[in-house]
Specification:
Blueprint (H helix, E strand, L loop, with lengths): L1 H67 L7 H14 L3 E8 L2 E5 L3 E6 H4 L9 E6 L10 E7 L7 E6 L16 E8 L2 E4 L15 E6 L6 E6 L4 H30 L3 H8 L3 E10 L5 E12 L3 E3 L1 H10 L3 H20 L6 E7 L1 H4 L4 H11 L5 E8 L6 H13 L3 E7 L5 H7 L4 E4 L1 H5 L9 H12 L3 E4 L5 H9 L4 E2 L10 H5 L6 H5 L2
Parallel strand pairs: 12-14, 14-15, 15-16, 16-17, 17-18, 18-19
Antiparallel strand pairs: 1-2, 1-6, 2-3, 4-5, 5-6, 7-8, 7-10, 9-10, 11-12, 11-19, 12-13
One calcium ion binds next to strand 16.
């Protein structure tokens, strides 16, 4: 039993830890996925904001370029000032180039020129209505990448406007509230990109940061890339807190609930509540008259699943769990319940031997509990004998006063299992006791051949000297009974006379003629 219960505590511990861990994981995971969900929404907003800004910018630029298209028909000196002022007032424009017959002939930055546009900007496709390149630099700013855009004239395919723009990818593009954990953006055409990561051209896939969104910019051969952290250490920290709290709480709650269900001792208290304990009575016979003079009350536990559990198992368990007081109080209630019926089976003056654990004896409520039992018994019918073992030492000072008080109230005291412990002799020396119950170990070794049992002889002599009555336990044969009677033992108890019986068995029991059986 104790092993099983240790096992129960271990089980409680393991289940609680597992529940805690599992709940922690679920709570943490939930918090994390909620944070993730928010983050995805945030990234969507951030990306669409940036994309809208970029689209807005290029659409403005398109409008400006459209206004410049007619200038491509005029000589440079006539239009250069307008060109320059347009460039000055267009945000981020580095230069406008006017193109006639595929030749760049006028620049807002440098004035008149005459160079085929494709020589100036290799890679640009002038046959298209609109083309875009990313340039590592422009003649005026050779180290700063720029985006070049070719707008073909709507009237003449070989005319048009070319614009180079600084693409300002500075965070001003981005709404401040959305900038958390944002790492950067890139704009790419083909394999080339300019980004917030480097002053040089890059390839969008080469960025060490993680790209979380990318999409084509409306009506331009341009792709916008957004780089950000999908999750951050903060998200983990934020998830850890509820995980820890929920895990701890669930673990503790689980431990508490299981402990209440499975904790050691719970079973005994539960069994008391569910009326699983019952008593049996073993008659004690007067050795002289061979008539029943009383009975020892023995507790039994009928467990709903484990069946009968021996008192040799549950009494030590109850003692270890400090449950002897409630258990004995329950025993008293069970005896009180039987008392009226017992009256008809036990003679007037019948002795009720009740086993008392030392722990209860020293409990403050003991005399009170005993008086309550006594009050529930039929008046003047029974006399209570408290059977005390020598297994646990009595506290000397307290016991002497207690025994005196018990004697004054008419209760008698028996020393049980005499001879099996090592303190009984001291008890005999110190306390006034009424009965000495000789343990069945001494009875079973009575040698019928030699009819000698020197230790038992000495014990009986001792009892006589101390003015104590003797009870022999575990009398299993007629020979033993004869031997004990011959030695002057006062009372006999054992299977030969009768096994412990329930109240109804006792009520139906007809004592056989022991005196006849012992003759011969
Ligand atoms: P115990 O006080 O020595 O009780 C006598 C035990 O001997 C009983 O065992 C009884 O059934 C058994 N017995 C009686 N006659 C014979 C016999 O001829 N031969 C053999 N071999 N055994 C016999 P049980 O009922 O199993 O009780 C065992 C022990 O559990 C008791 O020993 C007692 O120490 C304890 N116990 C039982 N009921 C209570 C109780 O209500 N309170 C306390 N504190 N202890 C109890
Ligand atoms: Ca006993
Ligand atoms: Ca005994």
């Amino acid at each position: 039993m104790p092993i099983r219960l240790t096992h129960a505590s271990r089980k409680i511990l393991i289940i609680s830890i597992l529940t805690g861990i599992l709940t922690g994981i679920v709570a943490g995971g939930l918090q994390f996925s909620i944070a993730q969900h928010h983050r995805e929404i945030q990234l969507d907003r951030l990306f669409s904001d940036i994309k809208a800004n970029v689209e807005h910018y290029f659409s403005d630029l398109h409008t400006t370029s459209d206004l410049l298209q007619p200038l491509a028909l005029s000589p440079c000196e006539k239009v250069s000032s307008e060109l320059t002022s347009r460039a000055a007032f267009s945000v981020n424009v580095r230069a406008f180039l006017l193109v006639r017959n595929h030749n760049a002939f006028c620049s807002s930055a440098t004035g008149a020129m005459d160079v085929p546009l494709t020589d100036l900007i290799p890679g640009i496709d002038v046959s298209k209505k609109l083309d875009m390149v990313i340039l590592p630099g422009t003649p005026m700013m050779p180290d700063t990448p720029a985006i070049g855009i070719w707008y073909q004239s709507p009237l003449r395919d070989e005319h048009g406007v070319f614009v180079s723009v600084n693409v300002n990818l500075a965070p001003s593009l981005i709404n401040a509230s959305l900038r958390d954990n944002y790492q950067g953006v890139a704009l790419a055409t083909g394999d080339n990109a300019i980004s917030t990561f480097s002053a040089r051209l890059i390839s969008p896939g080469d960025v060490s940061a993680q790209s979380v969104r990318h999409a084509a910019i409306d009506s331009l051969p341009l792709t916008l890339w957004l780089y950000a952290e999908r999750w951050t250490p903060q998200d983990i920290q934020l998830a850890l807190l509820p995980a820890l709290m929920a895990g701890l709480l669930a673990g503790l709650l689980c431990a508490l609930l299981l402990h209440r269900r499975l904790r050691p001792g719970r079973e005994i208290l539960q069994a008391i509540k569910n009326d699983q304990f019952y008593v049996v009575y073993q008659p004690v016979v007067d050795a002289g008259t061979l008539r029943v003079s009383g009975a020892e009350v023995l507790l039994r536990w009928k467990h709903p699943t484990k069946g009968e559990i021996s008192p040799n198992t549950f009494i030590p368990l109850a003692e270890a769990q400090k449950l002897m007081v409630p258990l004995t109080q329950h025993l008293f209630r069970l005896i009180a319940r039987d008392a009226a019926a017992l009256q008809s089976v036990l003679p007037v003056g019948g002795k009720l031997g009740i086993n008392i654990a030392t722990g209860h004896l020293h409990a403050a409520s003991f005399i009170e509990d005993l008086d309550r039992l006594n009050a529930a018994l039929p008046v003047q019918h029974f006399s209570i004998v408290l059977e005390i073992t020598e297994r646990h030492m009595l506290k000397h000072g307290e016991a002497a006063a207690l025994f005196k008080a018990l004697h004054q109230k008419g209760y008698e005291i028996a020393i049980d299992d005499f001879g099996t412990g090592h303190s009984a002799l001291i008890y005999l020396e110190r306390f006034t006791l009424d009965y000495l119950k000789i343990d069945r170990a001494f009875v079973s070794v009575i040698d019928m051949e030699t009819a000698a049992s020197p230790v038992l002889d000495t014990v009986l002599l001792l009892a006589k000297r101390l003015n104590m009555q003797t009870v022999a336990e575990g009398v299993e044969t007629a020979d033993q009974a004869r031997w004990l009677r011959a030695r002057g033992v006062n009372f006999l108890q054992g299977y030969w006379f009768c096994r412990p019986m329930t109240l109804s068995q006792l009520q139906n029991w007809q004592p056989p003629p022991f005196s006849v059986q012992l003759q011969g």
